[in-house]
Write a structure and sequence with these properties.
This protein is mainly alpha-helical. Helices cover 68% and strands 3% of the residues. It is built from 30 helices and four strands. The strands form two sheets. A two-stranded antiparallel sheet has the order 1-2. The chain has a two-stranded antiparallel sheet with strand order 3-4. The radius of gyration is 31 Å and the shape is globular.
């Protein structure tokens, strides 16, 4: 969008054309339309009708009228920043309120950088200069874009102007530094103020959360003299973002005790926490809360509900939530396709992908990850190849490393290890640890030592201290009967002091989430649990459990038995 300089030479005003007289004249003649603009305008279509009426009556030239139109178009959730800019260019002699409105509108838009262009135009104005309400929008634009250097220049400007102690400016400046990761600068502003309000506290909490320091964020949260909904949401979403799902649900319980009503964003964070913990009862309670309190089932909320039910294994409830939602965004489709694929409903996932293709929406890269995952779990090699070609040829979607990862895993599981190797060699990007680990795992299942060695070498080049390379290669050797080589891999791990990260799983029983770590004995009922596991182990040995014509074994146990026998 081209930004232009305007002429700002105000014409001489007679006493009858002073702003107050203009407003009085406007209200007396078009008060009905002004009232509609303030109270009943809910869309751009409504705004355009009112704008047309103001043009017909001549009031569109009045700055007060124009500012009301501009405010809706630029800052309302239902506005249109492009239309707002057109309105702005037709306003003669805009005042500082109008300038601030268009700058704020751009700072909130999908192109916040245009706010800077408007600011430079304002600086070039010889009549009007930026005010205390101009800079906060600019600092927020800097925060969104990560333009902390330009923000620092603006900081210097407000210091020279003596505005740095203005609470509104200080809070937005603090927010910019915190969100951009410059916590020391943000802390200087926060710690140097004796009257920091809830907005300042929230900014610091957000900053710590974004940097992954949730413990410091929680310390600040606990010290807050006053909290609002943003405080609670920031802390809960911070826990979820950093994988502390139990803490998120625990804080929500505290929030409920204090009778704080959660926002839509808080509920979405809690649904994600429930999903990652597999806490179905908690997730169901949150879903029920959303329904009882009339919270809008928009695309974001619906997607979180579908994702929660899918990850908790309640695929029918996920399907019900998907089918009942009136507006199905692409994220809803993607979440449902992936949910079906991950819950053993591969055919349904592929059928749903076909429905998506027939809808008004187009599949994106995430959609193809879902359908490729379904093909992977169903062992549909040829169908997956067709989808991979469809993605690039019909939809012009460049495959990402995740798409290649799906294909490598699929080919490896199906025993097409040479094809998987060739695909890895043809990738336009360097394979990551996940792809090499997937190929190594397939080599273990199919006893291919040669390709296993090739995969391990590349895996160790990425990270020589990565335990999975040694563990998987040891298992490859053990599966092929090369126990001495398997033992050497384990010894090499010990020499390098590389420890295998223990596996972890979560399960919900009677509404309580239990966490289990491989080899762990911290659970209060560990003795009973291990007793049951031992009984199950004996039963499996007696049954001589067989899969795909091969006895399933634990490579660690096989290696141990080999050592004892030797």
């Amino acid at each position: 969008m081209a930004l232009c300089f305007c002429s700002f030479n105000p014409p001489p005003q007679s006493p009858s054309s002073t702003p107050n007289n203009k407003i009085s004249k406007f209200i007396s003649s078009d008060q009905h339309y002004l009232s509609m603009l303030e109270t009943q305008c809910t869309s751009m279509q409504d705004l355009k009708k009112l704008h047309a009426q103001f043009i017909k009556s001549g009031q569109a030239k009045d700055n007060f009228t124009a500012s009301r139109l501009l405010s809706f178009a630029a800052t309302s959730p239902y506005g249109d920043i492009n239309y707002a800019y057109l309105l702005f260019t037709r306003i003669q002699n805009p005042n500082i309120f109008i300038w601030n409105t268009i700058i704020r509108g751009f700072s909130q838009s999908s192109n916040p950088q245009f706010a800077f262009g408007m600011f430079f135009d304002l600086l070039a104005n010889a009549v009007i200069q930026p005010g205390r309400l101009t800079y906060p929008s600019l600092f927020k634009a800097c925060a969104r874009l990560g333009f902390v250097d330009f923000g620092a220049q603006l900081h210097a400007m407000v210091v020279k102007l003596g505005m740095v102690f203005d609470p509104f400016i200080r809070n937005s400046l603090m927010y910019m530094y915190a969100i951009c990761g410059f916590l020391s600068e943000a802390w200087k502003l926060f710690d140097g103020s004796k009257d920091s309000d809830v907005v300042a506290w929230n900014s610091m909490i957000m900053g710590f959360v974004k940097c992954g320091d949730v413990d410091s964020a929680r310390e600040l949260f606990d010290e807050m003299p006053v909290r609002n909904t943003v405080s609670w949401n920031s802390m809960i979403s911070g826990y979820v973002r950093n994988g502390k799902w139990k803490e998120a649900l625990g804080l929500f319980s505290e929030m409920q005790r204090e009778k704080i009503k959660p926002s839509e964003f808080t509920l979405v964070s809690l649904l994600n926490a429930s999903a990652n913990l597999g806490a179905l009862k908690q997730g169901e309670w949150i879903h029920d809360y959303i329904q009882k309190n009339g919270i809008e089932l928009n695309v974001i909320v619906t997607t979180a509900i579908i994702n929660m039910y899918s990850k908790c294994g309640s695929i029918e409830m996920a399907r019900q939530a998907f089918e009942m939602t009136p507006i199905k965004g692409l994220s809803c489709w993607n979440s449902m396709i992936i949910g079906l694929a991950m819950n053993g409903c591969e055919d349904e996932a592929i059928q749903l992908f076909s429905r998506l293709e027939s809808s008004s929406l187009k599949p994106d890269s995430v959609s193809f990850i879902g359908v490729l995952t379904a093909c992977n779990h169903a062992g549909l090699v040829n169908k997956a190849k067709d989808y991979f070609c469809l993605m690039t040829e019909r939809y012009n979607i460049e495959p990402t490393i995740k798409h290649y990862g799906c294909m490598v895993d699929l080919l490896g599981r199906a025993g097409h290890l040479q094809q998987a190797k060739e695909l890895i060699r043809s990738m336009p990007m360097n394979p990551d640890v996940i792809i090499w680990g997937s190929l190594l795992s397939s080599c273990r299942n199919h006893g291919n030592v040669e390709i296993g060695n090739w995969a391990q070498r590349h895996l160790m080049e990425l990270d020589s201290n990565e335990s999975s390379g040694h563990v998987l290669m040891s298992n490859v050797y053990a599966a092929s009967g090369h126990f001495e080589k398997a033992i050497k891999e384990r010894i090499l791990m010990k020499e390098k002091r590389i420890e295998k990260q223990p596996g972890c799983s979560l399960i919900e029983v009677n509404g309580e989430v239990h966490e289990f770590v491989a080899g762990g004995r911290l659970h209060p009922r560990a003795v009973e649990i291990y007793s049951v596991l031992n009984d199950l182990s004996l039963i499996l040995q007696e049954m001589e459990f067989v899969e795909n014509g091969k006895r399933i074994f634990d490579q660690d146990s096989e290696i141990t038995e080999y050592i004892v026998a030797s």
